[in-house]
Specification:
Layout lengths: L5 E5 L7 H12 L5 E5 L7 H12 L7 E5 L9 E5 L5 E5 L5 H6 L4 E4 L11 H11 L10 E2 L13 E3 L2 E10 L4 E7 H4 L9 E8 L2 E10 L11 E5 L4 E6 L4 H5 L13 E7 L8
Parallel strand pairs: 1-2, 1-3, 3-5, 12-13
Antiparallel strand pairs: 4-5, 4-6, 6-7, 8-9, 9-10, 9-15, 10-14, 11-12, 11-15, 13-14
Length: 282
């Protein structure tokens, strides 16, 4: 039997040994297993970021990959679970909303509970389960009880609507290092608007009834097509449309309260409309 690849995503960082201990735990179960780090730089407890990274990364891994997404929120429960994707991958993660974006885009074939008490006391349970699943000594069906996919926890996510010359959507996540936004409209769906690179669009960002941003914005391939400080709409590496400022933080300028809102970035809504022909963003 061919052993599965293990990929690990956490908010542990690399300043101490916590991330390294995960590899050590896997290797103690089976030294021959291949382990790679998908990301250890998730902001602490940020399940929106974790879910975006999961969506952006796992789709490119081979069939049968075991992907451990270990990001626990500080303000709620984090019951461990295992998810089987429709293409044969396994995701080990807290059922705390971090599966939301994957569910919305690809769905999940089955969900099972994980009993962390089964793992040795000195080993991270996600690493231990990942190793056992990867080397075939434990099967997905041999995990804890199955439960309905529909009952998986989800964070608030505003859906997208598109038509000729317009898109309505929400904010999927904030790339905190730069302040750019991942919007909840995929690049594939945005193409249905007929808006093309070089076009000027009117972007309106609201939080409830309050308009936070309302301006003409250029839609183009990269930040190099705009002046420093100017807004730009672009295709993000996450597979979603992005919104940002050239050499500045859009989120810090227009969404300063995003961490305090009960729904987080789910409280924001955007309308994008193609500007009149011949109109250019400043």
């Amino acid at each position: 039997m061919q052993k599965r690849l293990i990929a690990i995503e956490t908010d542990y960082g690399t300043a101490d040994g916590r991330a390294a201990k995960l590899v050590g735990a896997v290797k103690r179960v089976d030294a021959s297993l291949e382990v790679c780090f998908a990301n250890h730089a998730c902001p602490r407890g940020n399940i929106l970021f974790a879910g975006t990274m999961l969506y952006n990364s796992l789709a490119f891994f081979p069939r049968d990959t075991v992907y451990a997404c270990i990001v626990e929120r500080a303000d709620g429960e984090n019951p461990p679970c295992a998810a089987k994707t429709h293409d044969g991958k396994l995701i080990l993660a807290p059922d705390n909303g971090s599966l939301t974006i994957w569910l919305e885009n690809f769905g999940i074939a089955a969900l099972r509970r994980l009993d962390a008490a089964q793992a040795p006391a000195d080993m991270n349970p996600y690493a231990w389960f990942a190793a056992r699943l990867a080397n075939g000594t434990l099967a997905f069906d041999g995990l804890g009880p199955e439960y309905p996919v529909e009952s998986a926890q989800r964070f608030p996510m505003r859906g997208a609507a598109v038509g000729e010359g317009y898109a309505e959507c929400g904010v999927l996540s904030v790339m905190e290092n730069f302040g750019n936004l991942n919007l909840s409209v995929s690049i594939e769906r945005f193409e249905q608007t007929g808006i093309r690179f070089g076009d000027t669009v009117r972007v309106t960002l609201c939080c409830g009834e309050e308009i936070r941003f309302d301006a003409d914005v250029r839609y183009d391939r990269s930040f190099g097509f705009t002046a420093p400080g100017a807004p730009i709409l672009f295709n993000g590496s996450s597979g979603y449309v992005g919104l940002g400022l050239n050499q500045a933080s859009f989120s810090d300028q227009y969404m300063k309260d995003r961490r305090e809102l009960p729904d987080g970035v789910g409280a924001y809504a955007l309308v994008i409309r193609k500007a009149a022909a011949g109109k250019e963003a400043s």
